[in-house]
């Protein structure tokens, strides 16, 4: 087992069944386990190296440990696993054409009460470094649906999309991934978030005019624009 701490993220290279017993209970588990449909070796996904991590679903005992690791649980591919009935499924509409050979939507099981919810984003709208990589915006939406938890755990983290979403929202993340190749990708993606300068290094006050800090920060820029027009 290897452990890396990058900013607000703690990342483990290892089997989640070995790591989970060492962790405290977190606010939310938001995860995307193998669906057991051999998607990693699907001929449509030729551009990715064929690894066999998706040959089988995790055992019942693994899923049970995963769900119990958080106060709230969101499990993508929930329709493939033997989980209790749930009212609040989260559905991702992948905006695929009707006659396309891949699924038009994916479903996440949750242990939340409340109506099912739908999120829409094209599966072609982002670059993938993992064959079943989720969009960062989808995982941010999941975090919001989970009630804005402070610490989020993903025991099947893949390329670390849940972690990227959590850190970009200013939250803490614990990620576990078994494949060294995907673990490295996760570390690189998380490091990029930590290294990125904040988009807006200031906040607005209720008047919308900005705080003194923001005015001081923007003034030189506005002056430069003023000189050019
Ligand atoms: C569906 S993928 C997750 C993809 C991820 N949502 C993303 O956006 O990159 C599931 C991942 O779980 C990993 N995995 C499978 N069994 C595992 C285990 N027992 N412990 C830790 N990771 C595991 C696989 O290597 C795979 O990368």
Give the tags.
2 domains, Rossmann fold, 6 helices, 9 strands, 229 residues, alpha/beta, 9-stranded mixed β-sheet, binds S-adenosylmethionine, globular, 28% helix
Q: Describe it for me?
A:
This protein is an alpha/beta fold and 229 residues long. The chain has two domains: 2-196, Rossmann fold (3-Layer(aba) Sandwich), CATH 3.40.50; 200-229, no CATH class. It contains six helices and nine strands. It has helices at 16-19, 60-68, 136-145, 161-168, 180-195, 212-228; strands at 2-6, 9-13, 26-31, 70-76, 90-93, 105-110, 117-120, 151-154, 172-177. A nine-stranded mixed sheet has the order 1-2-9-8-3-4-6-5-7, with helices on both faces. The longest helix is centred in the last third of the chain and has 17 residues, at 212-228. It binds S-adenosylmethionine. S-adenosylmethionine binds next to helix 1 and strand 9.
The whole-angstrom Rg is 20 Å
H/E element string? Answer: EEHEHEEEEHEHEHH
Strand content: 15-25%
In what order do the strands lie side by side in the largest sheet?
1-2-9-8-3-4-6-5-7
Mean pLDDT: 87
Structural class: alpha/beta
Number of E strands: 9
What bound compounds does this protein have? S-adenosylmethionine
The unreliable regions are 204-214
Write the layout of secondary structure elements.
Layout: E1 2-6, E2 9-13, H1 16-19, E3 26-31, H2 60-68, E4 70-76, E5 90-93, E6 105-110, E7 117-120, H3 136-145, E8 151-154, H4 161-168, E9 172-177, H5 180-195, H6 212-228
Parallel strand pairs: 2-9, 3-4, 3-8, 5-7, 8-9
Antiparallel strand pairs: 1-2, 4-6, 5-6
The chain binds S-adenosylmethionine.
Residues 15-17, 32-34, 53, 130, 132-134, 155-156, 158-159, 161, 176-179, 182 line the site of S-adenosylmethionine (SAM).
